[in-house]
């Protein structure tokens, strides 16, 4: 992703975070739990909750991933729909560059003025074929988003203190696992999927929401894609 469009934004950088003044709503969560059955996360260790959420994300058929915040002090955002088979649609915005993203049938495409610049002859309104998606270093996938969640587990396993608290997130009962630098909100009813993840450090904050689990992600191979004859220019 970064080599093709010159963006530093990557899903693996969206680790987790602290909320500061955010107030838990445990009473509301308890009331909502009365209408449904808890999946039992609230009684598990923090590390296990995080691992369970990451696994639930990895096994979903599709998800909408929206991330907003700063990276190295600059605004960054990602709005993506991803499927288990590797299809991705959406937009990346970072370092003043906005690029549309399409991944379908194992091939990556980009579109927009920032994307067309390195490819002489490409139109700004034309999808550009940047080649096969490389599984080894692919940051745009459900799997990589799940791996980013597991960074929080590694911190906890490494000795960082964590709290587990029931609350409401996205209008449903949830469990929050929080450390000094990261927070993860996980559904407390039904499948234990991640709902929100926040990363916060001295310089940056990045917040991710996960919604629309299992929804269709329409995508088709572009019929007029630009086929570069050479590698992109810098």
């Amino acid at each position: 992703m970064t080599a093709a469009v010159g963006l530093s934004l990557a899903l693996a950088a969206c680790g987790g975070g602290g909320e500061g003044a955010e107030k838990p709503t445990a009473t509301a969560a308890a009331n909502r739990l009365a209408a449904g059955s808890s999946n039992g996360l609230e009684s598990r260790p923090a590390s296990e909750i995080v691992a369970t959420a990451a696994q639930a994300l990895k096994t979903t058929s599709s998800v909408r991933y929206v991330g907003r915040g700063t990276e190295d002090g600059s605004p960054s955002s990602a709005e993506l729909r991803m499927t288990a088979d590797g299809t991705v649609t959406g937009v990346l915005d970072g370092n003043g560059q906005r690029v549309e993203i399409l991944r379908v049938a194992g091939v990556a495409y980009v579109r927009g003025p920032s994307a067309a610049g390195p490819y002489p002859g490409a139109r700004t309104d034309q999808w550009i074929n940047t080649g096969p998606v490389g599984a080894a270093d692919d940051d745009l996938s459900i799997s990589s988003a799940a791996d980013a969640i597991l960074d929080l587990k590694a911190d906890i396993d490494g000795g960082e203190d964590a709290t587990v608290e029931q609350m409401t997130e996205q209008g449903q009962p949830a469990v929050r696992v929080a450390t000094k630098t990261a927070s993860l909100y996980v559904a407390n009813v039904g499948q234990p999927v991640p709902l929100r993840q926040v990363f916060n450090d001295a310089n940056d904050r990045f917040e991710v929401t996960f919604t629309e689990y299992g929804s269709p992600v329409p995508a088709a191979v572009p019929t007029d894609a630009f086929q570069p004859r050479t590698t992109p220019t810098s």
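Helices lie at 2-5, 26-33, 46-58, 113-116, 142-157. Confidence is low (pLDDT under 50) at residues 1-24.
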